[in-house]
Amino acid sequence: MLGFLFAAMTLCASPTSAQVVAPSSCKDDLEWTHYKKDKNCASIKSLSKSKRNKFCRKKAKKNGKQKVKTFCPEACGACKTECPTDFSTSNGKKKKCSKYQSGSTCASNYKYTGGCGADDPINCVAINTYTCGNNNKWDLSTLDVAGCVTDSGLGPLFPSGETCDPAECPLAWPEEGTDCKLAQDNDCVYDYQYVGCTFASGVSCKPAKFASCNEENKWETSYMAFDPCQGLEAGLPYGGSCEPCSEVKPEDTICPSDIPTNGELCDIDIRCDYNFMLTGCSTLDLKCTPSSMFSCVDGVWEETASIPEICTPPPSLPCPDWKPDYNAACTQDNGFEVGLVCNYDYRNTSCEEGKEVCSSLETYECSESGWIGSARDFFCEEPAPKDFLKECDPVVIEPKS
Prior knowledge:
The protein is mostly beta strands and 401 residues long.
């Protein structure tokens, strides 16, 4: 089944990139001198503001198009790092960018693109990019996003086409190496899966995919491979997708985001729940249950701890009537208990004529990796009794009470 897993977030208005992307570090070129006038970046600083602004708009080289501010951005005051909120005047004319380095860019109108199939990642990209040109004006370039039809005959998969914020975690797991603007101390998590081998030992909902923004403002992605269960309880949804529990409930209320302390002052008439965990003894019963609950009583917080439901492990089955296959799974979906020892192929191993000693020739033990078998050989000095190694029924001796 084709599908994408998304991080939980709210779609928001598309912002302008807050930070300017400059073509280089904003530093003056100490070796540059004007081709006509005997001036360099250091001497420009001594000019009056009006003369400095005028000189910074001059050509830096005789036959070139670059302005003086390209070589002397610091001296010309062209090191502004915050993008403007708009790039045109009220009558539609381009705004000047004299306070920015030539070649600096500002991105805006971010939208999700892609989603034309399972191999087409969905990324948050800027539709509009403004570049500070040599004419000291913002020049607009627009990304042409081609439409598509998926194999199902529909348009691109959600959330393609929706607005997005590059400073937030994208809804879909980003593509490795694509541009990002997320703070480096933030991680984005995706693809939550059920983890746990038995209901009695506990089931949790953990992310399997991660993304972070590196120093080069590129996405770095990773994937968590959870250890498989050798003794998976029947019906447990291990590896299935799940919704993570909330950090606090009720959400979007006046409950503190951080867990209160017993005795701390409070002034709200509501119970706040924290430290949620999955509880339940079957897939249908799984739910998010708080382990800490705080109520505001007489102006101070009082904590009440919840007692989770205790699941009884399913009873283990006796030895199977059939001889197991070597290394076959013995705990998954059939309830055999690890450590169970089962004997098969009972034969008379007595070397005395007329006497029977019924012993098993093969023994199988249920382990985490499956059934492990071992065999035993029995020998008698010649001539062996005629009933030696003849099939027999083991004698079960009941323990004395």
